[in-house]
Design brief:
alpha/beta, eight-stranded parallel beta sheet, 12 helices
Length: about 300
Amino acid sequence: MSATPLRLQGQLTALITPMRPDGGLDEKAFADFVEWQIAEGIDGLVPVGTTGESPTLSHDEHKRVVEICVEVARGRVPVVAGAGSNSTAEAIDFAQHAKKAGADATLVVTPYYNKPTQEGMYQHFMAIAEAVDLPMLIYNIPGRSVIDMTPETMGRLARHKNIVGVKDATANLARPLHQRATCGADFIQLSGEDHTMLAFNASGGHGCISVTSNIAPRLCADLQRAWREGRVCEAMQIQDRLLPVHDALFCETSPGPVKYAASLLGKSSAFCRLPLAPIAESTRVRVEAAMRGAGLLN
């Protein structure tokens, strides 16, 4: 089973990538955003995942975002760099760069569009783990990649020392139970669904890689700490407070709504690269109302 000194738990943010109105990377805004996340008490940072618009970043941009995140974090919290691709060779290149840049781990999504078999997924992740000596989280998100890694396949992969955990975005609360059985209690299980962050912990999870914590890092981190310290009623109160925010941020394809929310906080422009269109006026109204209701806007 996996064995590593790396411990990931609590609330990690699936970081947005701030962009200028012309669509270029806003490096200063991103650096400031990372600093703000750490100051607000977040437990970890995950740059260039889907929320960071990795599908429309060039390879050079992708790597630069990882470098900035590591430079700003300066070891204060773990950095789990997105390194996924539906090309195994490309994923290895991203993972090699993440190691060189000083990331603490990588997040590697199941290969989208190709629709590999369970054996194909096994060989894909093993090839990356063998090529790059860095802890890796599997990112299982059937809603975007179409394929679903089974707990049995994950259990096979967990035997490799570099494959240490999963970001589980199945929204299936039986999954952490079955994955604990096949992968072992030390295998790091993080929810990839904001709505299930508390229930996932109750099923054996260790935390969440979150979209909502882009705009509510302190509240999300407080929820996780309350849970870890046994203050369950307090954690549930925060969960209730954040529910309308979760709903609003996913009423259109992410990261459109969360980037708009970040723009209301002055943290980023609302710009997303095509093919993500600007969000609808009704979505903007809903996002702002949810933020005000949760006390995130004055």
